[in-house]
Amino acid sequence: MRTDVSKINEQTPHEDLTEGLMIFAGGTSKQFRTGEWRTNTPVFESGKCKQCLLCVPVCPDGSIPVANGERGQFDYVHCKGCGICAKVCPFGAITMKEGITA
Questions:
Q1: Is there a contact between 84 and 41 (Cβ–Cβ < 8 Å)?
Q2: Whole-angstrom distance, CA of residue 96 vs CA of residue 79
Q3: Alpha carbon distances (Å) from 27 to 6, 50, 63, 78, 100
Q4: First to last CA, the chain
Q5: How does pLDDT run across 38-88, given as a tens digit for each residue?
Q6: DSSP calls for the chain
Q7: Is 41:97 a contact under the CB 8 Å cutoff?
Q8: May I ask the CATH class of domain 33-98?
Q9: How far apart are CA 81 and CA 11, in angstroms?
């Protein structure tokens, strides 16, 4: 049985699944364990971090938690390893490592 694509936004017996399991909405990474897609892994060196938090808003997956005004370790369950955080870090506190590690 195929999903009726004309009713994509309506509740169907297949819940919110679309044909081909495509995702059309933004901000859905927290709903899926996307960290397994990663081919490169960001490594955070807290000793080099100055808590400027420049890395936080550029992370497309929201994988850099902040608590009490300080960033924490990466959320590797959702991080896809794009490397944007490493590129914006002015202190070299984030480097990319090849491979899927956490």
A1: no
A2: 12
A3: 23, 28, 12, 12, 23
A4: 39
A5: 889 999 999 999 999 999 999 988 899 999 999 999 999 889 899 999 999
A6: ----GGGTTS-BTTBT--GGG---SSS-GGGS-GGGG-SEEEEE-TTT-----THHHH-TT--S-EETTEE----TTT-----HHHHH-TT--EEEEESS--
A7: yes
A8: alpha beta
A9: 33
Instruction: Name which of 8, 5, 59 is nearest 30 in CA terms.
Output: 59
Which H or E run includes 30? Answer: none
Express as a percent the part of the chain with pLDDT over 90.
51
Backbone angles phi, psi at 43, to 5 degrees: -115, 125
Measured from the Cβ of residue 93, the count of other Cβ atoms closer than 10 Å reads: 21
CA 92 to chain centre: 20
Give 99's DSSP letter: S
CA geometry: angle 69, 60, 58, nearest 5 deg: 50
Instruction: Write down the domain spans for the chain.
Output: 1-25, 33-98
- The partner residues of 43 in beta bridges, in order of sequence, read 95
